[in-house]
Model the fold of this input.
Amino acid sequence: MEFKLKKTFIYFLFFYFFFNIEGNSKEVPTSFADLAEKLMPSVVNIYTTQTVVTNVNPFPFEFPPGSPFRDMFKDFGSPQKRKTTNLGSGFIIDAKGIVVTNNHVISNAEDIYVRLDDGREHEAKVLGADPLSDVAVLKILSKDKFIPVKFGDSDKARIGDWVIAMGNPLGLNGTVTSGIISARNRDIGMNTYEDFIQTDASINVGNSGGPLFNMNGDVIGINTAIFGRDGSIGIGFSIPSNSAKRVVEQLIEFGETNRGWLGVKIQVVTKEIAEYEKLDEARGALVVDVAENSPSDKAGIKDGDIILEFNGVLINEMKELPKIVGQFTEGKTIKVKIWRNEKELLKKVTLGRRETTEDFKVKKQKKTNESEIESLKIKVRPIKQIEKANRGLPRNLKGLVITEIANDSPINYLSIGNIIIEAQKRAIKTVGDLEISVKAALKSKEKTLLIVIYNNQNQRRYIGVKLN
Done:
């Protein structure tokens, strides 16, 4: 009798948990067809044109693919202008033809065209663009009425939720892919304010700027980046809609962004620093420099302070602080909790505007952060994470992109866009690394510089340079 009761009880528990799980789980979609059909008119393909200068081959023959002479003599000959076309995606958020996309889709474009699912094509203009968040807003130059979609609440998106991505991958317009949210709050080193949604919905080149929809048909993300050299490997990243929406609203209203500014430089609080400062654990953001007359300076924040909370939000890691500060606008007074001399102190900081700071103005004027290497007569800048993603290069690759080459440069046979990754068998991570290697070569008897590059076909090449 006792055995039967136990057996009955076990069966009861099994059915209870089985039906309880079934009752609490959402039904797996049998098809996305109805949802895709409803949303397709709001997703657009974006084509941009740009004039580039190339040199016509002066030789009556072609070097074979992979030949080192192909790159060496690439820039010889007479310069010729030609139009290039870039592809991207976007989505309509207003019936008047307001389109959201990525900044890198339309950056440096001379002409922008938007093509709808029904085949209509219109020219568009830029209302505003923000390189820091990689968000841009366009206006379709037409009096037609368009079908918009709306932003959803990305904070409610959960790992495991179904999503669909729509856009123009590899020029294949009207493409729909599905998957789930794989992770939240991803930081992949592309910009200061990133907080990506990771998805396994297939995303490829050309999907940039397109929408990531939830099952209600709301945009919860802007598809921006992928991992993988040869296309989608099931790891794609989208800007959360809640972050993008704030930027979009400011770009529409002002044509630019208005982000809060503390006026401090910060670094990670290590375990050793926490122990030295008698802090319970390694957390917060260590202030290493306070800009003169900045909001923090006026509020009494000093070098060596550790920022623990901002507006009541705990700062667990240093990288969280800039993202939180950027959510507020100029003039907002915020309570900031700091750690100083083994005590917690509360400071009130009235935020400035990052876009009006001298530091930001310099960065805006020097968008590419170029530096000149006088002895080589070239200009270079560090490679960006987005470039590595777009070119399919390794994510951990370090190097300097050549942005300008003088005619009398000792390496004038290289091309703009080539990436210098080594010099004199030394890894090149910064401009300083390259300058040190060049100086060493100039002091040597041979005056020869050995550099390693990735050319514009992503081929690794060794180049010997004779210096004067």
Summary: Confidence is low (pLDDT under 50) at residues 12-25, 360-368.
